Amino acid sequence: MREGWGRVGVSGRLDNDVMAETGVTRTVLHVDMDAFFASVELRTRPELRGQPVVVAGAGERGVVVAATYEARAFGVHSAMPVGQARRLCPQAVWIEPHRAVYAEVSHGVMELLRAVTPLVQQVSIDEAFLDVTGALRRLGPARQIGERIRAQVRQGFGITCSVGIGRSKSVAKIASTRAKPDGLLEVPPDQTLAFLRPLPINALWGVGAKTEAALARLGIVTVGDLADSPLPTLVRAIGQANAMHLRAMANGQDNAPVVPERDEKSLGAEVTFDTDLPRGPELRRALLQLVERSTQRLRAQGLMCRTVGLKVRTSDFTTVSRARTLDSPVDSAKAVLAVAESLLAAVNLHGLPVRLIGVRLENLVQGEGQAVQLTLDQAAGPREPAALRAAEAAADQVRLRFGPKAVRPGTLVDTLCLEDDRQERR
Question: How many CB atoms neighbour CB 373 within 10 A?
Answer without folding.
Answer: 15
